[in-house]
Every structure is written in C-alpha cells, then in structure tokens.
Amino acid sequence: MPISKELLEILACPKCKGDLEYIESGPHGEGLFCPKCKLFYPIKEDIPIMLIEEAIKLETAPSNSSL
Fold this sequence. Notes:
Elements: H1 5-10, E1 21-23, E2 31-34, E3 39-44, E4 47-48, E5 56-57
Antiparallel strand pairs: 1-2, 2-3, 3-4, 3-5
C-alpha cells in the first residue's frame, strides 16, 4: 500500500533530515529512499522502518521510483 502524500511530506531522513522518495518496488522491496545519504528505509507491514541502523546503503538511486 503506497504511503500517502501527506505522510511523505512530513517524514524526513533520520540521518540528514532531508526529503525522502517513496519507492514502490525495487530490489529491496517497498521503502523510502534518501538521495542525499543514499539510504533506503524499508517498509514492513505498512510501517516505515526509520532507524539508521536498519537502513540499507545503496550506491545508486533505485530505478523505479514512483515520483
């Protein structure tokens, strides 16, 4: 289930406080991506896991962003 635009507008990367992009599906599944930190925060059971230690470091941006 996609994240609402209202929620996406108030969520920020816990590391840099920057904007996040919603990724509907990619190699790591559904989640939120910080283009500045290149961290991917997975969404599990419709809940974003916004812990830095749970984030997945990516070298490049996921290719099928829904934005």
